[in-house]
Amino acid sequence: MTERLSTSSLAGTTGAAAGDRLPPARFAFDRHTWKEIAHLLANLPAALLGFVYIVTMLSVGVGLTVTVIGLPLLAAGLRGTRLLGKLERARARMLLGVRVDEPSPLPLRSEHGFFAQLWMSLKDPVGWRTVLFEFIRFPWGVLTFSVTLTSLFVLWPVLPFIARGLANVDRAMVRGLLSPSDELERRIAELESDRGVVVDTAAADLRRIERDLHDGAQARLVNLAMGLGLAKEKLLEDPDAAAAMVDEAHGEVKLALQELRDLARGIHPAVLTDRGLDAALSSVASRCTVPVRVTVDLAERPAAAIEGIAYFTVSELLQNVSKHSGAGAASVEVWRSSDRLLMQVEDNGRGGASLAGGTGMKGLADRLTAVDGLFVVDSPEGGPTTITAELPWRDRTEADAAGSVARR
Q1: CATH of 193-267, one of 1.20.5, 1.10.260, 2.40.160, 1.10.8
Q2: Calpha distance 265→42 (Å, rounded)
Q3: Contact (CB, 8 A) for 289 and 255
Q4: Would you say 330 and 290 are in contact if contact means Cβ atoms under 8 Å apart?
Q5: Are 50 and 134 within 8 A, CB to CB?
Q6: Is the peptide bond before 384 cis (omega within 30 degrees of 0)?
Q7: Radius of gyration, CA atoms only, the chain
Q8: β-strand pairing of 292-297 with 340-347
Q9: Which of 57, 150, 306, 407 makes a 20 to 30 Å CA pair with 369?
């Protein structure tokens, strides 16, 4: 499945690049040529506007750095350059057919305070590359405007070739200076979003644990204490009634212990820590209302965090099989492929599962995405349902070594 996803991603990238290709220039004025001419003639006013903004922003911001308002003004000016870059990308997209992704936006505020936000704006690579673009583009805009305007009256027959050559330089400048610097910027934005998912998930889990303790084991222990108090009072007056109360309290203790075991299993099951995914998933499968075949093909164990995510993912999927699928049989397969841990849960039920449904699929997908994982649902109406999940493989020894270094 990893290869299919990688191939799809590459195909999408190739398709986008192919959309930027234009027919070769020729002795004719087609729509591409006229768009390029319009772009080149508009270069001068656009370059003049951008150059004036950049010079003013740098002069005022840098000149006032000796005061308390200098750096904030410079930071605000750099944020404004992002708007210039956005306008230039839109112009290039409309007239030159250049499809450049928008860079990741800067957050409006930082959780670490004003100075962290200020520093983030001052070191913004997108803003500084736009400054460089506007500086280079000013003399280039003057040149392209002059050459194009002259060619309209003097070199009319070869103008399509001149326009194509000049426009290609513009395309290179836009791609080189106004596109996201690299995948790292986009990755940072994804991690910012994923962090929110992780925080929300952790908060929801804490609320669930608190609710289970309050409504379950805690309530039983309170009843147990009250029952034992009453039994103590009746011990001398009515030994038989006291014995009955103690017997009832014994039953409450057993139920409370079972609820605490279930709660501990929901946090992190001991069998997973002691014996790994094979035994832990077999234990989950034994509690499923549908017969489940479990196959775990792992020569070694991943890091504890990855193992835990894999366990809870399969556990929740099997709960969905029990509650919603109407299946007669299901299977779980877990294996390693290169640096990925893959899990596949399949059932022969009615199908129709989706990320938009009410079976918690969206939450599972968000949780896996937050740790650089993947979650794919294939569930046509009438079944069968096949859900494949991927997680990054991290060796337990490497994770333990990293944790040891961190503790030092």
Answers
A1: 1.20.5
A2: 66
A3: no
A4: yes
A5: yes
A6: yes
A7: 32
A8: unpaired
A9: 407
Q: Residue 398 — left, alpha, or beta (φ > 0 → left; ψ -120 to 50 → alpha)?
A: alpha
- So where are the chain's domains? 18-181, 193-267, 271-407
H-helix or E-strand containing 344?
A: strand 340-347
Please indicate, yes or no, whether the overall pTM of this predicted structure exceeds 0.70: no
Q: Calculate the alpha carbon distances from 344 to 247, 363, 395 in Å.
A: 47, 17, 21
Print pLDDT tens along the chain (408 aa): 434 333 333 333 333 343 456 666 555 677 888 899 999 999 999 999 999 999 998 888 888 888 888 888 888 888 899 999 999 999 999 998 888 888 877 766 655 567 777 787 888 888 889 999 999 999 999 999 999 999 888 888 888 889 889 999 999 999 888 887 655 555 555 555 555 555 555 556 666 666 656 666 666 677 777 777 777 777 777 777 777 877 777 777 776 676 666 555 555 677 777 888 888 888 888 888 889 999 999 889 888 888 888 888 888 888 888 888 888 899 999 999 888 999 999 999 888 887 775 557 777 887 787 777 888 888 888 888 899 999 888 765 444 444 443 333
Question: Please, what sign has the CA dihedral across residues 283, 285, 291, 293?
Answer: negative
- Kindly write down the DSSP assignment for every residue of 232-293, as one continuous string: HHHHHH-HHHHHHHHHHHHHHHHHHHHHHHHHHHHH--HHHHHH-HHHHHHHHHHTSSS-EE
User: Count of CB atoms within 10 A of residue 397's CB?
Assistant: 11
| Per-position DSSP letters for 2-20, written without gaps between them | HHHHHHHHHHHHHHHHHHH
